Amino acid sequence: MANLIPVAHQVDCQPGQLLRVKMQDKRLLLANVDGTYYLVQEMCSHEEVSLYLGCLHGDTLKCSLHGSRFDLKTGAALDAPATIALQTYSVVVADGQVFISL
Ligand code: FES
Predict the structure, then answer these.
(1) Disulfide check for 68: which of 2, 20, 41, 82 has CB 3.0–4.6 Å away?
(2) What is the Å distance from ligand 1's center to 80 Cα?
């Protein structure tokens, strides 16, 4: 059975928004795409830049520094210069909370 750990209240990450989340030693980024939540590593896989400074385009996240886009579902890097996928995490939404599923 999955271990669910709360990471955020739903109201704190509205559609079209990003929310930085800390869990243990991990820096994560929660994205709300039209009511669907995605959880990925906060830092870009290309250089040490927070993707919180980037912007959402549909279910992709664009890095503010060099413009690489990442697929929020898979973490895949869709454009150069980034080539390494982001770590993605499963989430479950219940009772107004978003949980990471470990
Ligand atoms: S730091 Fe994100 S694409 Fe270069």
Answers:
(1) 82
(2) 9
Domain residue limits at 32: 4-101
Distance of CA 83 to the CA centre of its chain: 17
Which residue puts its alpha carbon closest to atom 1 of ligand 1? 47
Residue 6 carries which side chain, given as an amino acid letter? P
Number of residues that make up the chain: 102
pTM of the model: 0.95
Q: Residue 94: which CATH number?
A: 2.102.10.10
Ligand 1 centroid distance, CA of 82 (Å):
6
